[in-house]
């Protein structure tokens, strides 16, 4: 099947981002893609909670989501919105980092709220406290698409291998890892982490990413690493999109999942040992 990964530089303006993504989804559909994937926080990368509060909507009212659902139906494609920032329905003054799998009928087949929050100090000048802004999810999701079972995750989740093992053991043949990875950690860890998750679980890894400079103001800036990737179940890199925005096509053979898992049985083999004291 043909897939298309969209590599974006989302701004602080959801309307501007919608126009960009709409054009790219159309390009992907015209190029024959059956499954189109966007990165984390496709709709908005903002510099403050105050900006997010002004610019984001609840899921039921979100114009970005509504338009993407229409495009999926118009062009008969599966679409993964890697994530949208939406207002939390359960916690006042917080948001959800929510991934959506949309079917060719325009219906939401599955939604996943990012479980692991990016609370790190990368350097003296680059610090993130995602948990201050976003409400964490608490449920792993495997969705049934027409072509495969899809295990959903978002960005920092990639550092928690037990999540992906649970997805694969629940039947996931494709693992989606949309991201807005920071540059220093991306340079050091992005590719090896993605390849490890593919190899450990005998699954395709599809990882659309944000790239470049998103904003620069008040002495603050936000840059992301790019390098959207597709990894096959044997750990081979089928796509490295570099640092430029664009639509990137890859043809994959889903039979590679069963072939890879038949050659390495670690996914079904139990480990029995005494835990360290």
Give a description of the structure.
There is one protein chain. By secondary structure, the chain is α/β, with parallel strands linked by helices. It has a single domain, classed as Nitrilase/N-carbamoyl-D-aminoacid amidohydrolase. It has six helices and 16 strands. It has helices spanning 14-30, 49-55, 63-75, 161-169, 183-201, 255-263; strands spanning 2-7, 35-37, 78-87, 95-102, 108-113, 119-121, 127-129, 141-144, 149-152, 174-176, 204-207, 211-217, 220-225, 229-231, 237-240, 246-251. It has a six-stranded mixed beta sheet with strand order 5-4-3-2-1-16. α1 packs parallel to α3. The longest helix has 19 residues, at 183-201. It is globular. The N and C termini lie far apart (48 Å).
What order do the helices and strands come in, and which of them pair?
Elements: E1 2-7, H1 14-30, E2 35-37, H2 49-55, H3 63-75, E3 78-87, E4 95-102, E5 108-113, E6 119-121, E7 127-129, E8 141-144, E9 149-152, H4 161-169, E10 174-176, H5 183-201, E11 204-207, E12 211-217, E13 220-225, E14 229-231, E15 237-240, E16 246-251, H6 255-263
Helix pairs in contact: 1-3
Question: Which features would summarize this protein structure in a list?
Answer:
single chain, 277 residues, alpha/beta, Nitrilase/N-carbamoyl-D-aminoacid amidohydrolase, six-stranded mixed β-sheet, 6 helices, 27% helix, globular
Major sheet characteristics? 6 strands, mixed
Main sheet strand line-up: 5-4-3-2-1-16
The CATH topology: Nitrilase/N-carbamoyl-D-aminoacid amidohydrolase
Residue share in β-strands? 25-35%
Number of strands: 16
Under CATH at level 1, the class stands as: Alpha Beta
Question: How many helical elements?
Answer: 6
> What series of H and E elements makes up the topology?
EHEHHEEEEEEEHEHEEEEEEH
Principal-axis shape: globular
**Number of discrete domains:** 1
What is Rg?
A: 18 Å
Category from helices, strands and their pairing: alpha/beta
Low-confidence stretches: none
**What is the correct CATH architecture?**
4-Layer Sandwich
Round the mean pLDDT to the nearest integer and report it.
94
Percentage of residues in helical conformation: 25-40%
Query: What is the CA–CA distance across the termini?
Result: 48 Å
Q: What is the assigned CATH homologous superfamily? A: Carbon-nitrogen hydrolase
